[in-house]
């Protein structure tokens, strides 16, 4: 049995995931075997992934609007938000 000590600052950030070594090795082998279409490479850039993480956080916090049934409803919501 292996004991792992996790620093408190990592636990409080809720960004730590512990993966058994066998599964980690399998994931790395899978990751190396896939190919990203060059047209989609922008999505995997650190800048875009940061934006994706921000969007996910906003969704979890309920800071989203919609869906809207018509474009008029969308424009109305945007105008109300602007005030």
Write a structural description.
By secondary structure, this protein is mostly helical. It has helices spanning 8-13, 21-33, 46-60, 71-82.
Shape: flat
Describe the main β-sheet briefly: none
**How does the helix and strand content classify structurally?**
mainly alpha
Intertermini distance: 60 Å
- The overall average pLDDT, rounded, is 84
Work out the count of structural domains. 1
The quaternary state of the protein chains shown equals single chain
Q: Considering DSSP H and I runs of 4 or more, what fraction of the residues is helical?
A: 55-70%
Strand residues, percent: under 5%
Flag low-confidence runs.
none
- The arrangement of helices and strands along the chain is HHHH
Cα gyration radius (Å): 20 Å
Q: Tell me how many strands there are.
A: 0
List the helices and strands and how they pair.
Elements lengths: L7 H6 L7 H13 L12 H15 L10 H12 L1
């Amino acid at each position: 049995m292996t004991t792992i000590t996790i620093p408190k600052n990592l636990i409080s950030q809720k960004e730590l995931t512990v993966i058994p070594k066998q599964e980690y090795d399998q994931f790395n082998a899978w990751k190396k075997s896939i190919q990203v279409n060059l047209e989609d490479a922008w999505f995997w850039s650190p800048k875009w992934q940061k934006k994706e993480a921000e969007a996910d956080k906003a969704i979890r916090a309920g800071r989203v609007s919609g869906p809207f049934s018509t474009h008029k409803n969308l424009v109305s919501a945007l105008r109300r938000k602007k005030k």
